[in-house]
Design goal:
- This protein is of the alpha+beta class.
- It has three domains: about 80 residues, no CATH class; about 130 residues, Glutaredoxin (3-Layer(aba) Sandwich), CATH 3.40.30.10; about 70 residues.
- Helices cover about 30% and strands about 20% of the residues.
- The chain has a five-stranded mixed beta sheet, covered by helices on one side. Strands 2-1-9-8 form a four-stranded mixed beta sheet, with helices on both faces. The chain has a three-stranded antiparallel beta sheet with strand order 4-5-6.
- This is Peroxiredoxin.
- One of its GO terms (molecular function) is oxidoreductase activity.
């Protein structure tokens, strides 16, 4: 048996060749091809993944534009999200569908980041601006949900925990804090941006929370997003692949298979050395202090390589106070 990790779910499959007639990743075989709702892969294209024995899962994922990583020695396969065809629209998950018609600040944070101390300020902004048709939605990147839960005890805004990294993959989030603004129609109003709601760590990140929250209020009340950039930054193939290795590593660590997990952690770091959501985010599962020496060594490594820890958009992040 093989454990399949896909779409935020975990299931058991007999092998990488799936018997004919079995639905795969929500797709079903029909006479003219594989279909999911109104979308179909015609038979002549699907033939590349089909044989007399069944359908090759890895090849089929490729037809869907989804990367896959298998560790057959450990009996686990991870399949990523489809490449987003429209970077100008916000990928849906959890509470987003129910908030259409509302402006959203999608706030990515984690208990292993000092930005956890910003959650009360985000909650205050949610309460202050909800009368204008606005909501904060916070997304914790904690791989262990219990690490995030204590910080969410008093929030009223929609909050989710992205333990498998799927939402970070959908939005190409490589560090926290990262905030994405989404308009009433589900379109990107401001893409991935390093934004703070307090100045607790301004000495480290150099960012003004006063300027950021003033810009947020202007957008919510007046509709001015302060930028002409209205598409998510697309991930490179190596970044997408790194996230799958990280997903396998997290699953293996939870299952007590540290040695196998380390191999996938090393591969993820080699593919996307700048991705702190992976490299720092998995430290707690690996028994490493995310605020300790290894984290600061990682910061030094990236800074010496010219890799920015924080990636704010320009415009209101710059200039005089």
């Amino acid at each position: 048996m093989i454990t399949l990790l896909a779409g935020g779910r975990e299931e058991k499959i007999d092998g990488l060749v799936v018997p004919h007639g079995t639905p795969i990743l929500g797709w079903e075989r029909k006479s003219h091809g594989w279909c999911r709702g109104d979308a179909c892969i015609p038979s002549f294209r699907a033939a590349a993944a089909e044989s007399e024995d069944g359908v090759d899962l890895m090849s089929f994922a490729g037809l869907l534009g989804r990367q896959a990583v298998a560790d057959l020695d450990q009996g686990v396969v991870a399949i990523g999200e489809p490449a987003e065809p429209s970077l100008g629209r916000a990928p849906e998950f959890g509470p987003l569908a129910g908030l259409r018609g509302t402006k959203i600040a999608l706030v990515f944070w984690a208990s292993w980041c000092g930005c956890r101390y910003d959650l009360p300020a985000w909650e205050a902004l949610h309460l202050e601006l909800r009368g204008y048709g606005f909501s904060v939605v916070s997304v914790s990147l904690d791989r262990n949900p219990q690490d995030a839960e204590e910080w969410l005890a008093d929030v009223t805004h929609p909050a989710v925990i992205d333990a498998d990294g799927r939402i970070a993959e959908l939005y190409n989030v490589i560090n926290v804090p990262t905030v994405v603004w989404i308009d009433e129609e589900g379109r990107i109003a401001r893409p991935q941006d390093t934004m703070t709601a307090t100045d607790t760590f301004r000495s480290m990140n150099g960012l003004s929370s006063e300027r950021a929250t003033a810009a947020l209020r202007r957008w919510v009340i007046d509709g001015d997003a302060g930028t002409t950039v209205r598409e998510l930054r697309a991930p490179a193939d190596d970044e997408r692949l790194a996230r799958l290795h990280a997903r396998l590593a997290a699953w293996l660590l939870r299952d007590g298979r540290g040695e196998a997990a380390e191999r996938h952690l090393s591969q993820a770091a080699a593919l996307a050395p700048h991705d702190l959501a992976i490299r720092r985010g998995l430290m707690p599962l690996n028994g490493v202090d995310p605020f300790g020496e290894e984290y600061f060594a990682l910061r030094e490594e990236l800074e010496n390589s010219g890799v920015a820890i924080y990636r704010p958009l320009p415009d209101w992040h710059e200039g005089p106070e």
